[in-house]
């Protein structure tokens, strides 16, 4: 600061600091920022993503298209297609008056056990950053902001609000911050969200070192926002560089930001910076009078939007096994096709989070789409083969409100009053969440919520009923209390809500009309929730029925995988395995049917112990609501699977990076136990993954014959922080199969003296059968930097770099060298 600037600052302080716009730094409610008449800034709606636009009120009647999950998009290795998906969700935001969408998630699945891994693109920072930037670019081309999340090292859901990620500076810079840096440099998301967790002892929203990297090193000009309820100190957050606290009403920023400046605890320039950034967001999104909003780049019809989602789904599918070229199915030779597996009729589109999306319009299941594609000349048989492993909503089990309307009766009552109903409505869900005001009651007061459901049972049936919420919950059956559930611990309320935790009781329900009532008394709080679920006992063995139809079919398609609650916010997994019932189903069917194809509907790395016993394995992730038609198209050969794995698949849990380690007594997770993670873990430990990062088959075969590294005319050895640009690899690849196909060539680099290779480039090539093509792979400039902790800066190691061009991280490929 110059002497003149210092004097100016001093004069301002004498007159009293300018607190104009302080209200802009605090949210208005659960989904909107505050307005400022003085600044001409309107409220801006921020809604959760990234799998679709989430309802403000968590209302199942508010719908939007469900996008492919992050891991599914990662499997496409196709930035242009990911950008188109971003445009679709951006258009959905435009149509709903949304200013910014909370996504994408640029954290990385350090372990396949992380509960929220389905949102993440890849275990590689370069691939994650490139695809994340493409998603951001697509969304923002529609005039809707991306709130890219969560900075940083937010890959553990256990105790996520209190846990501490201990990460050395090299790993933090080169791996976990890297996707965010790529997104900022390439696409400049209009918002960045700080994570809940601590990094090296300090909460991210109050971590001055982290926010300085964003603003000072990367020159980021957007809004730095907290995760919801992710702030607990006004001065620490303001001085660290946080610009906006969400949700509202503000607890720590907003007016308190201004008070901290007036008290001299925070510099006035820090408030000006925050206000300027929020105002800039209003300009960009058209929420400021006189501002110039970005006009939508391309508005598509709903059928055009769905076509993009179908293309993204089919391109995300990764063919892991295809013995005897059983796929694509030759339907002319099939008279009877057995479809088994619970996910064929009830597919999983998303994990369990606050960002749960209710699908818009028609949803065709895999079973329905396969039947349609098979045609009238093929008998298609179906059995689920396995019972649901988690409880179901009451509405999924055919509940009705007392007046006979399908659904449940939801009521809100005053505290201590069983008769005075303030709000009443029949709903098609049996789990409800309210941030801030509760319908009919308002915010900040005690009250009661009640769910009433009726079931018409043909005979006495044993059910397991579950209830839970943010208060004391009582479960009554036909007027008799059968369960009382205490409120959650104060420090885990949000976790209980995110996980939809319940306690359960098993009992015999009589034949006839049965009334189930869940009544919850709650105290004032930032969020209120009530949940009711049930699990009927199985009346017959689903496995036996599935094996019976498989034994008499010409071919069998098994569709298994996760349920929505299997991978979820606020809870990590204990194993990478699928549900044991799924494994039993595959093993049993493979014993009686030689032509067995398994489709895995799980958006994470999974253990597949039966892969050698079946003819084909197709990884389908959470591919969005166009799953059914995309799958049928690939199975019958109208489209070909061209995805490549964005994550490594272990053979067993013990092969997972950091297996057996977790939070210590101080809630610290030491990343040293799991680094390097992903495919670099398999390289440095000399373990073989079941399926390698970057691996994938298709309906044709390819042969890589040549690769040459070159320095282009644009070569520049930049400042160390910008790496090295103008490096390329040219590779020759031939399609040696019978069909046109797409392959993804990958370039991995190793610095002098290093043990393992890292991805620095990739290129997709489409080649006709029998043809040869040359691909040019531009190498990532930032991939040649290394962080020097002793000098606190970037360096580019000199000497001979090895560059390997291959078709997966485990493929030896072709080695070439570049001298730097």
How would you describe this structure to a colleague?
With about 800 residues, the protein is α/β, with parallel strands linked by helices. It folds into four domains: about 20-285, Glycoside hydrolase, family 3, N-terminal domain (TIM Barrel, Alpha-Beta Barrel); about 305-390 and about 545-685, Rossmann fold (3-Layer(aba) Sandwich); about 390-535, Jelly Rolls (Sandwich); about 700-820, Immunoglobulins (Immunoglobulin-like, Sandwich), CATH 2.60.40.10. The strands form nine sheets. Strands 10-27-26-25-11-13 form a six-stranded mixed beta sheet, sandwiched between helices. A hairpin with a 2-residue loop joins strand 20 and strand 21 (about 480-485). Helix 7 packs parallel to helix 8 (about 235-240), helix 13 packs across helix 17 and helix 15 (about 540-550) packs parallel to helix 16. The longest helix is centred in the N-terminal third of the chain and has 17 residues, at about 80-95. The protein is globular, with a radius of gyration of 27 Å. It starts with a helix and ends with a strand. Residues about 1-15 have low confidence and may be disordered.
Topology, element by element:
Elements lengths: L2 H13 L30 E3 L14 E2 L5 H7 L2 H17 L4 E3 L22 H16 L4 E7 L12 E3 L2 H8 L1 H9 L4 E4 L3 E2 L2 E2 L4 H10 L5 E4 L7 H7 L14 H8 L5 H17 L17 H15 L1 E5 L13 E5 L1 H4 L12 E2 L6 H9 L4 E5 L8 E2 L14 E7 L6 E7 L3 E5 L11 E11 L3 E9 L2 E6 L2 E6 L7 H7 L3 E7 L2 E11 L4 E10 L5 H10 L3 E7 L18 H13 L3 E6 L14 E4 L7 H9 L32 E3 L8 H7 L16 E16 L6 E12 L5 E10 L7 E10 L4 E7 L7 E3 L4 E3 L4 E7 L7 E6 L1
């Amino acid at each position: 600061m110059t002497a003149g600037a210092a004097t100016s600052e001093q004069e301002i302080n004498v007159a009293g600091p300018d607190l104009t716009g302080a209200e802009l730094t605090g949210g208005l409610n659960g989904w909107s920022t505050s307005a400022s008449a003085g600044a001409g800034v309107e409220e801006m709606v921020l809604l959760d993503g990234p799998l679709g636009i989430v309802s403000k009120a968590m209302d199942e009647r508010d719908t939007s298209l469900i996008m492919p999950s992050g891991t599914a998009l990662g499997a496409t290795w196709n930035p242009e297609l990911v950008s188109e998906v971003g445009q679709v969700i951006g258009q959905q935001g435009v149509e709903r008056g949304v200013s910014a969408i909370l996504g994408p998630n640029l954290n990385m699945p350090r372990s396949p056990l992380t509960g929220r891994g389905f949102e993440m693109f890849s275990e590689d920072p370069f691939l994650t950053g490139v695809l994340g930037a493409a998603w951001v670019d697509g969304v923002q081309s529609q005039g809707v902001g991306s709130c890219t999340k969560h900075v940083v090292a937010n890959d553990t859901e256990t105790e996520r609000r209190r846990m501490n990620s201990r990460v050395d500076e090299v790993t933090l810079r080169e791996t976990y911050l890297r996707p965010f840096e790529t997104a900022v440099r390439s696409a400049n998301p209009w918002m960045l969200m700080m994570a809940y967790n601590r990094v090296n002892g300090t909460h991210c929203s109050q971590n001055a070192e982290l926010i300085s990297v964003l603003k000072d090193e990367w020159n980021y000009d957007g809004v730095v926002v907290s995760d919801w309820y992710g702030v607990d100190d006004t001065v620490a957050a303001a001085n660290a560089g946080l610009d906006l606290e969400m949700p509202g009403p503000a607890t720590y920023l907003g007016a308190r930001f201004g008070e901290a400046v007036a008290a001299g605890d925070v510099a006035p320039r820090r408030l000006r910076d925050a206000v300027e950034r929020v105002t800039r967001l209003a300009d960009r999104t058209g929420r400021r009078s006189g501002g110039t909003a970005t006009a939508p780049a391309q508005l598509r019809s709903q059928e055009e939007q769905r076509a993009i989602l179908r293309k993204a789904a089919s391109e995300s599918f990764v063919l892991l096994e295809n013995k005897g070229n059983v796929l694509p199915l030759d339907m002319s030779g099939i008279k009877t096709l057995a479809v088994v597996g619970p996910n064929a009729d009830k597919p999983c589109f998303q994990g369990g989070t606050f960002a749960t999306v209710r699908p818009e319009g028609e949803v065709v299941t895999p079973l329905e789409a396969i039947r349609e594609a098979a045609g009238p000349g093929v008998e298609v048989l179906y059995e689920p083969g396995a019972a649901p492993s988690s409880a179901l909503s009451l509405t999924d089990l055919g509940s009705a409100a007392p007046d006979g309307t399908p659904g449940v009766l939801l009521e809100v009552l005053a505290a201590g009053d069983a008769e005075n109903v303030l709000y009443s409505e029949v709903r098609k869900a049996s789990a409800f969440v309210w941030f801030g005001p509760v319908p009919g009651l308002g915010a900040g007061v005690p009250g009661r919520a009640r769910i009433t459901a009726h079931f018409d049972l043909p005979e006495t049936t044993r059910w397991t009923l579950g209830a839970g919420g943010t208060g004391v919950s009582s479960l009554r059956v036909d007027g008799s209390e059968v369960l009382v559930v205490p409120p959650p611990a104060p420090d885990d309320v949000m976790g209980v809500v995110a996980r939809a935790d319940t306690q359960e009781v098993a009992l015999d329900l009589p034949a006839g009309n049965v009334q189930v009532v869940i009544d919850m008394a709650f105290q004032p709080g930032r969020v209120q929730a009530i949940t009711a679920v049930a699990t009927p006992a199985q009346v017959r063995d689903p496995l036996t029925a599935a094996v019976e139809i498989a034994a008499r079919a010409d071919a069998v398609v098994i569709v298994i995988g996760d349920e929505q609650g299997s991978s979820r916010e606020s809870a990590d997994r204990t194993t990478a395995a699928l549900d044991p019932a799924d494994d039993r189903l595959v093993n049993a069917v493979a014993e009686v049917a030689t032509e067995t194809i398994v489709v895995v509907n799980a958006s994470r790395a999974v253990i597949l112990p039966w892969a050698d016993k079946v003819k084909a394995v197709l990884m389908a992730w959470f591919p969005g609501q166009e799953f059914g038609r995309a799958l049928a198209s690939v199975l019958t050969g109208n489209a070909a699977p061209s995805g490549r794995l964005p994550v490594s698949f272990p053979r067993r849990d013990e092969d997972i990076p950091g297996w057996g380690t977790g939070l210590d007594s101080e809630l610290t997770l030491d990343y040293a136990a799991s680094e390097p993670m992903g495919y670099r873990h398999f390289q440095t430990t000399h373990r073989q993954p079941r399926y390698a990062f970057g691996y994938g088959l298709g309906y044709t075969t390819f042969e890589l014959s040549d690769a040459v590294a070159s320095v282009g005319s644009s070569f520049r050895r930049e400042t160390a922080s910008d790496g090295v640009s103008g490096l390329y690899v040219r590779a020759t690849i031939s399609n040696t199969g019978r069909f046109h196909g797409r392959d993804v060539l990958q370039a991995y680099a190793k610095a002098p003296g290093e043990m393992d290779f890292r991805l620095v480039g990739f290129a997709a090539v489409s080649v006709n059968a029998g043809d040869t093509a040359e691909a040019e792979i531009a190498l990532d400039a930032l991939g040649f930097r290394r962080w020097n902790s002793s000098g606190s800066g970037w360096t580019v190691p000199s000497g001979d770099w090895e560059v390997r061009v291959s078709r997966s991280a485990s493929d030896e490929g072709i080695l070439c060298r570049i001298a730097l």
